[in-house]
Amino acid sequence: MRQLIAGNWKMNGSLTMARGLLDALRAADAALGCDLLVCPPATLVSVAAHALLGSRVAVGGQDCHAKPAGAHTGDISAPMLRDAGASHVILGHSERRADHGESDALVRAKVAAAVAAGLLPIVCVGETEAQRVGGQAEAVVAGQLAGSLAEDFAGVVAYEPVWAIGTGRTPTEADVAAMHAHIRAELERRLGAGGAGLRILYGGSVKPSNAAALMALPEVGGALVGGASLVAEDFLGIARAVRG
Ligand code: PGA
């Protein structure tokens, strides 16, 4: 399977910025050996979907509500994202878990909502620095997988150590490889054969200079990129570094 390089713009982006960036991705996409996904803020999902129409660059949301519609001021549902042109949605990002107190059970409900709406969920897991130092990283991630994924899960998992997000720090290549092997084993144990083929992305301070080494590791199916996804040359630099 081709690797997936996914950009999480977080709470960044304007109409002007989006147009320039998306045009650059569109122009470069055909020559890449990987799949591209952009996840702009909800205000720009429809803009991105229109700008990328006819290209292979996919568009995703950064979160969705667990209900398809209703009295939930300020929230956005999975069918709304689909309607706006999204095909994917990031769920359970550590910033959502921290800023909005999202639990594994809520993430699991959101995954069900996303799938019901025809979106491919990208479920984020990862330990804090204290948990890694305390030797609990694998147990924490196993717990998040068990709580967030139903037995028929068929989406993407993103391993994002919380302490590596936006910090410029990354785990060692050995630690990334070990955690991805652990996640693969957990997916196979919990999902059976279905767990064998799911993409497992690495996220946390991925940039052009470290992408080739990270993307060459076994069981790394691509990257979830935050800061570097806001600059076309950086995001494309990462995409060009994949093993193809
Ligand atoms: P970063 O963010 O690339 O800026 O570290 C990654 C993420 O949060 O998905």
Going across the biggest sheet, name each strand in turn. 1-2-3-4-5-6-7-8
| Record field, number of beta strands | 8
Task: Kindly report the CATH topology.
Answer: TIM Barrel
**How many strands, which pairing sense, and closed or not: the largest β-sheet?**
8 strands, parallel, barrel
What is the class in the CATH system?
A: Alpha Beta
List the uncertain runs: none
The ligands bound in this entry are:
2-phosphoglycolic acid
The helix-and-strand class reads: alpha/beta
Give me the number of helical elements. 10
The helix content is 40-55%
Please give the radius of gyration in angstroms. 17 Å
Total domain count: 1
Distance separating the two termini = 9 Å
CATH homologous superfamily caption: Aldolase class I
CATH architecture verdict: Alpha-Beta Barrel
What series of H and E elements makes up the topology? Answer: EHEHEHEHHEHHEHEHEH
Q: What general outline do the C-alpha atoms trace?
A: globular
Strand content: 5-15%
Mean pLDDT: 97
Question: Can you describe what's shown?
Answer:
The chain has 244 residues and is of the alpha/beta class. It has one domain (8-241): Aldolase class I (TIM Barrel, Alpha-Beta Barrel), CATH 3.20.20. Helix content is 41%, strand content 15%. The protein has 10 helices and 8 strands. It has helices at residues 15-28, 45-51, 78-83, 94-99, 104-116, 129-133, 137-148, 173-191, 208-215, 232-240, and strands at residues 4-8, 35-39, 58-61, 88-91, 120-125, 156-159, 200-203, 222-225. It has an 8-stranded parallel beta barrel with strand order 1-2-3-4-5-6-7-8, surrounded by 6 helices. Strand 6 (156-159), helix 8 and strand 7 form a beta-alpha-beta unit. The radius of gyration is 17 Å and the shape is globular. The mean pLDDT is 97. The chain binds 2-phosphoglycolic acid (PGA). 2-phosphoglycolic acid (PGA) binds at residues 8, 160, 165-166, 203-206, 224-228.
